[in-house]
C-alpha cells in the first residue's frame, strides 16, 4: 500500500438477498486516520456494508481492499486478525464477567498461544489504558450486567480497542443514549480517530452534525453523495431522500417529540 492509497477501498460491491439488491455497485474509499460517518434512510444498506467488510455477509460481486489485502472471502476471525473490528447495534458483552474481564478476554483474541501463556496475572497496562480511555476505570471490577445502556456501548468500544484494530466500524453507537452519553461518545470517537480509522453508521443527525467532518450518504444500496456535512446537507438529492421519507412515512406516524425530529432531520 502506498501513502496515497486509502486504508479501505470498496469497489463495485453488490449484495443480493433472494434476488433483492441490498447493495448495488458501491465504490467507497476511507483514508487512514479518517472519522467517516455513513448515513442514509432505513434500509439504505449501511449495516449490510459493514457486514460485508467484516466477513459476515458474502457479496455477489466486488472487492473490499483493506491495507492492500482483499477481505472478500475471508472469515470473520481472519478479518479481525487483519485489524478490522466492529460493534453491533446491540452491544455484545458477557454479563457475568467484570468490565475488566470482558476487556481482557477481548484483548486475548488477537494473542498467539505462547503470548497467552506468558501473560502475567493481574491487570495488564494495555487493559488499564483501554479502560481509562473508555472512561470505565471506576467500573472495572463491576459485573458487566449492571452497566447502563451507554456504559455497555462504551464497554463494547473498549473491547474493540483492546483488539487493537486499525479500522473500527461502529453501528449506531449512540442509539438510545442520553444527551450527556452522546457527548461523551462523540468525544471518545474523535479521540480514537487520532490514531485509528473509524467508520460510524449513525441515524442521529444532531450527533453527525456535531462530530462528522466527512459523511457518505447511502440510499437504496448506492452512494448518493459524500463530502463534508455542510455540502451533504445542502444537496437537494439528500433533502429529497430525507424529506421524501418524512412525506411518505411520517404523515402516518404519531407526532414525534421535537427533540427526536431535530435529531433525525438532515436539514
Ligand atoms: N439477511 C437478509 N436477508 C434479506 N434481506 C436483508 C437481509 N439483511 C438486510 N436485508 C435487507 O437489505 C436492505 C438493507 O438493509 P440494511 O440493514 O443494510 O440497511 P440499513 O441502512 O442498515 O438500515 P437501518 O438504518 O434500518 O439499520 C434492507 O431492505 C433489508 O431489509
Automatic annotation (TrEMBL):
GO terms for molecular function: ATP binding; ATP hydrolysis activity. Keywords: ATP-binding, Nucleotide-binding, Transport. Residues 243-267 are annotated as: Disordered. SMART domains: AAA. Residues 8-245 form the ABC transporter domain. Pfam families: ABC_tran, BCA_ABC_TP_C. SUPFAM superfamilies: P-loop containing nucleoside triphosphate hydrolases (SSF52540). GO terms for cellular component: plasma membrane. The keyword Nucleotide-binding applies. PROSITE patterns: ABC_TRANSPORTER_2. The keyword Transport applies. Residues 258-267 have a biased composition (Basic and acidic residues). This is Urea ABC transporter ATP-binding protein UrtD.
Amino acid at each position: 500500500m502506498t501513502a496515497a492509497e486509502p486504508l479501505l477501498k470498496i469497489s463495485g460491491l453488490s449484495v443480493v438477498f433472494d434476488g433483492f439488491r441490498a447493495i448495488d455497485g458501491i465504490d467507497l474509499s476511507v483514508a487512514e486516520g479518517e472519522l467517516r460517518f455513513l448515513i442514509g434512510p432505513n434500509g439504505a444498506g449501511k449495516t449490510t456494508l459493514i457486514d460485508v467488510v467484516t466477513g459476515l455477509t458474502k457479496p455477489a460481486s466486488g472487492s473490499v481492499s483493506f491495507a492492500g489485502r482483499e477481505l472478500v472471502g475471508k472469515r470473520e476471525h481472519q478479518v479481525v486478525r487483519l485489524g478490522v473490528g466492529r460493534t453491533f447495534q446491540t452491544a455484545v458483552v458477557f454479563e457475568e464477567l467484570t468490565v475488566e474481564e470482558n476487556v481482557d478476554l477481548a484483548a486475548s483474541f488477537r494473542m498467539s498461544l505462547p503470548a497467552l501463556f506468558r501473560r502475567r496475572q493481574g491487570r495488564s497496562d494495555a487493559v488499564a489504558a483501554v479502560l481509562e480511555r473508555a472512561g470505565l476505570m471506576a467500573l472495572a471490577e463491576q459485573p458487566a450486567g449492571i452497566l447502563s445502556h451507554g456504559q455497555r456501548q462504551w464497554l463494547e468500544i473498549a473491547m474493540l480497542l483492546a483488539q487493537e484494530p486499525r479500522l473500527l466500524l461502529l453501528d449506531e453507537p449512540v442509539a438510545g443514549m442520553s444527551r450527556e452519553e452522546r457527548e461523551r461518545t462523540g468525544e471518545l470517537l474523535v479521540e480514537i480517530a487520532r490514531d485509528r480509522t473509524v467508520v460510524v453508521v449513525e441515524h442521529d443527525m444532531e450527533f453527525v452534525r456535531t462530530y462528522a467532518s466527512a459523511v457518505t450518504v447511502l440510499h437504496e444500496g448506492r452512494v448518493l453523495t459524500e463530502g463534508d456535512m455542510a455540502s451533504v446537507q445542502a444537496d437537494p438529492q439528500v433533502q429529497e431522500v430525507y424529506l421524501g421519507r418524512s412525506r411518505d412515512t411520517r404523515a402516518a406516524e404519531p407526532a414525534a417529540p421535537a427533540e427526536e425530529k431535530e435529531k433525525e432531520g438532515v436539514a
